[in-house]
Task: structure prediction
Amino acid sequence: MNGFVADAESIQSGWGPEVMACFNYTSLPVLSTLALEFGVFDKWFSSLPGPTEPNRAFLHSCSSAGFIDNNEFELGEGYPQRTLQVALSDAGYSWKVYYDVFPSALFMRQLRLYPFHFHGTDQFVSDCKSGNLPTYSFLEPSYFSVPTTGPASDQHPSHNVEDGEKYIKKIYEALRASPLWSKSALIVTYDEHGGFYDHVPTPLDNVPNPDGSVSPPPYNFKFDRLGIRIPTVVVSPWVQKGLVVHEPQGPFPSSQYEHCSVAATLRKVLNVTTLPLNKRDAWAATFEQVFTTLTSPRQDCPMTLPNPPLPTLPHKRNLYDKPLNDLQLGLVETANYLAGKQHDVSMLKTEQEGGQFAMERLEEYFRTKKEALRGTIRNQA
Result:
């Protein structure tokens, strides 16, 4: 686990100290409170030693179909593999994706066929209040700073982490006030580590390749190891206060907690016979045991969380005029692909421009797709 400082310095002089730094309780009171009040995993790893979207693909499908980077054109075409959401549908369970501005879940080509399953974050709050949540909710923050929606809440550099804290607080408090609270669990996790230092070695042994995929040359990565540790908190009135989840309990001696643990745990809890999705899903450690130590749901769970502090670092430039990062470029290209690749997205330079474009193309796509699906239903009737 050496080389964090040297690698950072090779990219930009002066970055070394930054990758050794961390946030304390005062900086992140929302996430810290959830970790102290509920449970935190100290050995949850990213599914591969790679960037954002391949790791998110593992969360959705326990595979990245051989992709190892955030190539915006590959993301635009969409990852082709079967997803957890569709497996749940086939088993008779409901699901929704809640998002702001644009959902990265649309990198999964299969999910583009389900426009009625995508809703804004305000709908999540409404569904919590009415007790109308699906079996599985996937929640996405905002990846763009756009005047009509406000600052990005994804905590991706160079966005303020405080805005992400506000988002997590909103989600928790809506779920805590819901009539479904005593039947729910909220998992707060991150796709990967961002290059920051960690002293815990990455698991390298007996990690199964999900589906035989190998990345293209020159890397020829075999997907037979995990990535670095990432923060993961489990929130539920059925979770013991202050729980720290250490070593996994199977199903295999080498099993580890990683993104595929979500699908693997759902498979066990719901008895979904259409899973596992692949060998990695079958191997990933499950965490259903964290919900079975109490005989009744806790009554001392906080109704509200602390307010995050105001940003301590001033913006170096206008919030909405920041250049698009690689994650946002992938989202913009995906939006363009949904629009039939009719636009020259190279003209989009700022977060405001990219976010507005993505929102408009998404609205058009969902409207057209929903109309087509309604027409199919009418014709079948």
